[in-house]
Structure formats: structure tokens, C-alpha cells
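ugh finaly. both done.
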Amino acid sequence: MNDERSFRRAQTKFILSSAIVYAFFYLTRKNLSMAQPGMLEEGVISTYAVGTMLTVHGIVYGLSRFVNGFWADRLNGRVFMTVGIALSALMNLLFGCTSLSILFAVFWVLNGWTQGMGFPPCAKMLTHWIHPKELATKMSLWNTSHSFGAVMALGLCSLLLGPLGLGWRWCFWVPAALAAGATVFCFFCVKDSPTEAGVEELEIDGGKKEAESKATVTSAERCRLVFGNRVIWLIAFANFFVYIVRFGFLDWGPTFLKQFKGIPVAKGGLMTIAFELAAVVGTIFAGWVTDKWFKGRGVRTCVFCMLFAALFSFGFWYLPSGAPIWQATLLLMGAGFCIYGPQALIGIIAANQATKEAAAMANGFTGIMGYLSTLVSGIGVAFIKTHYGWGAALCSFAVFALVGMILFLCAWNSKATGYKK
């Protein structure tokens, strides 16, 4: 009993500490969405340049998650994550110090690579700390760090740009300073595994303990666990469409709210914060539903989430421009509530399907598919907006959500985990 209590205490500390650090990864990449209206008005960058930068950043981030997924399964997750957040802080500092378009691109693309050093080690560490039967609920709670990080970025930048009246550069300098503090916290407070924290490893039916896993699992076996699994391929392609909708609202939110709805940047930032706060509730709810109702079968939860995400996206597009702000906010919140469930569950499904021996690699693969979506949510949205207006761009989000729903539906009958294979 004492051993179990010790493990639970150590597990809670790990979930909280790693979630806090991961929130700072989001702080140092979602700050661009608040800074870009000021950059556009100042003329230091164009709409197409922003779209292109978002696209390349997303692709590089996806590649980084994929490549670093291979390394994270083999190396110490705490050290790996510490290096990543330190480099992200540096890239933000340098981005805020330049005025050249080419250097904006260089620093933000490099930031995309260093950002990809955050989630793969977390995916690996979480599967060592949490049993598959609890993974959907507890990892969904952990996954709210995405939203809290985005809320930090939106709220902090709204404060810097609004009441404090500072320029867009401070949207990078202040997050860089805060992320530097998170680097120290990560190194000393995050524990790679129960063994590193001084408690017993998890025993999982059909799986291996830490020492056995490191001794016996080869690269070929890890590749088989990931690339030989039909469910992982389906959710990876579905992730492409999940991220189009998610990034469409998050990366362009303050901009299209100002240009399409006539809402000031500071208020648009608050509305996007509401989108993210609803996402926190939606993420936790999706994890609870998966474990409670669908017995760990996350793809079933994703089907319903994508259906309702499509309906809320369509409703936001259909809402007249002169409608009250509260109506637009509620529709945004509905979309956020629904779209973040699949975003969190895909990582959980991939980890359970690939088992803890290849969880980071599986999440790297689904991640690269998700971030290839920036071909559409970045330069694609810029093209649609330029030629057809924001209305067409917003309507397309509903269509993409329905395509994602169909892909999840194809995996409806899949098993909850791959541990007994």
C-alpha cells in the first residue's frame, strides 16, 4: 500500500511538472498569432509571408516530432525536453530582435524544430508513468497543457499589446524570458521514469518493464509496432484534418476576427482565449468519455467530436457579420470544445496501439501528418482568403472536419490497445 501511495504521489508530480513545462513550449510558438496583426500593420511582413512561414514552421515541426520520436524512445526524456525548451527560448529572443523577413523565417523555422523536442519525450514518459486503462483520462488532463500554454500566449500578448501598449516584439521577448525559467524547472523537477523517481515501474499485461524493454526491443520491432498497425495509419491521416481545423482557428483567429468581423485585436485575443478554455473542458471530457463509455476506444469518441466540430465551424461561418460578439464567442467555444478532444486522443490512441516500447515513434508519425496540415492551414488559408475571402476559408473548416470524421469512422472496430498482440 505504501509503495502504491508513493507511486501515485510521484505520478502526480510528474504529470503536473511535465504539463507545466509543455505549456511553455506552446507559449513560445502560439505567441506569433497575436503578434502578426501588428507585424502586418507595421509592414515588416506580408500576409503571404505569414502564411508561408506558418506552413514551413508546421512542416519542420512535424518532421522534428517524427525524427525526435526515434531518439526520444532511446534517450532520457527529461534532458531531451530541457534542451528543447531552452532552444525555443533562444529562437524567440532572436525573432524579436530582427526586422528582416528572411531572418523571421529562419528563426521561426528553427523554432519549429526545437518545438518538436517537446512532445515525443512526453509521449514516451507518460506511457511509463500511466497504465493503459487510465491513459485516456490522465493523458487528457495532461493534454490541457496545450490549451493553458495557448491561453498564456494569448492573454500575455493581449496585455502587452493592449493595456501596456508595447510593440509586437515584446510578444517574443517576454515568453523567451519565461521559457528560460521553465528550462531550469524542467531539468530539476521532471522525472524520466518511475525508476528515476525512485519508485517501482508499472507492470502491463503483454508489455515489458523498463529494463526488459531497453534490453530486448529493437528498432525493427518498434517500426513494426508503428508502421504495421492499420489504426495508426488511419488516425495519422485523420490528424491531418484535425489540425487544419485547429490551426485554422488558433493561428488566424485574431486576424480573421479583426478583418472579417471587425473585432479589435485585444478583444479577438480574448475570444481566442475563450476558444482555448473551452478546449480544456472538451479535452478532459473526451478522455473521460473514452475510458468510461467506450472502454479506451478513443476513435469512437473522435467520430462524434469531429461531427460536432463541423457543425460549430459551419455555424460560425454562417453567422452574420453584425451578430453580437457573444454569439460568435459561443460558436468559437463550441468548435474549441470539440476539436481538441481528437487532438488529445490521437496521441493516446497512438501510444496505446504502439505500446510503451514505441509510443514516441508513433506520436512522431501521427505528429508529422498533423503538421503537414499547415500546407492548408497556413499558405492554403492565405490563398483562399486572398482570392475568395474569409467566408470561404471558414466554411472549408467544416468540410475538413467531416473528412476527418470519416477516417475515424473507418477505425471504429479497432481494439483499445496493442499490448496483447
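ok and the 2nd:
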Amino acid sequence: MNFTLLSSIVTVISMLVFIGIIVWAFSSANKERFEKMARLPIDNENGK
């Protein structure tokens, strides 16, 4: 196995992982959880 083939395989795997993270981050199943996490700093300032 030469370096070019190994480099290509790593590039494809990295791209698939990146696309997977994007899909996970923008999936509607995580929307409510992410909105709760986004409100945490505001809620902590008010002492809730």
C-alpha cells in the first residue's frame, strides 16, 4: 500500500466523518436539547 492510496482513504474517511457531524448537528431530533443548552448562560445569570 503506497502513501497516495493511504492518503486518499484517510481523506474520504475524514470527509464522511465531517458530513456525519453536520447531519447530527442539524438534525431535528437534537433541536430541543441544543436550544436548552443555548439558554443555559442566560438562565444562570438570573439565578434560575
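summary for the 2nd one i guess: The two ends are 58 Å apart (CA to CA).
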